[in-house]
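S., here's the first fold you wanted:
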Amino acid sequence: MQSGNNRSRHILVWLLATAALGHGGIAPAYGQSADGTSKPAETIPGDIVVTARKREETLQSVPDAISALGAQTIERAGVRSLQDVAQLTPNLVIVDQLRPGIQTVSIRGFTTVQGGKAPFATIIDGVQQPGMEYLAQNLVDIERIEVVRGPQGTLYGGGAIAGAINIVTKKPGDKFEAALKAGYFEGPGWNASATISTPIIEDKLSFRASVYHVDDDGQITNQATGNAVDQRKDTEIRGRLLF
């Protein structure tokens, strides 16, 4: 659900909880402790690992201003878009433009303009995205989101004068995991997502896939035609094979 407007929060229905995990819920973000073992990042004060500067660093050791959201925070806050991320991040504002799929972003006072390039970089799993269209994607099966505020031209080029948004998706694991979620919101509209992760060859090959669909009838009606002008139907599929 896009939360840039003033809709009521959708009702989240758990249909199939995460399986084969000791805690029986959503897996939290993981950070690396001083002894090299992986532990839930949100239980290790000062040891949350971020990678927005293209290397693993603890959050408190990075000299830049970084806001990091782990998987547990993303689920609890109902983060489903970068507009939701902006609501939890200082100096970041994201609003929809009149053109469908295009958004206006302001970060540290630098604001995108119609037809212009973004003053920041957007990175997904280490790959820098080429345009603003990638900001409107739905955030599903996300491990961590990092917002770096400040010039990042050395790492991401001259266009990143205001900062960078680094999105890290969840990797396939060595245990079977599955989840199915659905929600209903004003519009009327509904959304649903499904995730599955499973090992194929133990300790060698694993696979993870997720699918998300949203069907929104919209809230603004063209009085001349009687049709909704902000209706939306999106389906996204993501797959990942880890060797």
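And the second, which I think is the more interesting of the pair:
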Amino acid sequence: ITFLYGASSLPFAYLMSRSFSNHTTAQISVMGLFFITGFVCVNGYFIMNSIEDTKATAAVMVHYFRFFPPYNVGEALINLSTSFYLRTILGYQVFPFDYDVCGMNLLNMFALSFFYSFLVIMIEISEVGGGGGFVGTNLRKVGKVVSDFKLRLNGVRTVGGRLLVKDGLDDNN
């Protein structure tokens, strides 16, 4: 659980932090999001699932919650502790890696680690991402050529490092 949580939450946290310009705000916001999805949503789901009027809503919401790695680890830990008591007190044949216990959450975190890592790689090699090594550098060069071509089509030209529009005015001023 811990390994897959780390593998899925690190790229997820990186993606979330990219939307902030201040690292302190990013850290606090990502920690808040992890707390909300890992504690509040997990407890909210189990409370809603125990009330008859809100079971249908809980059944829908859980599918959205599972896109967050903290929710998966919280649910896996609760299911793991529940299976321990089912096995030791009631004598059920329930094992930790069963799909209904931790298996589904482990599978979700495994898939999310690849999904979020793929998104990180795609952002890093894109124009907005910066970095990306050889591929990212070449993609940004191609993007600049395309952008310059579009500007020239719209009457914009570069003179002395400045962008100028062909408007008929004197460029010397």
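Why I say that: Helices lie at 2-17, 23-50, 55-65, 69-88, 99-124, 133-153. The CA atoms of residues 16 and 30 lie 7 Å apart.

Talk tomorrow,
H.
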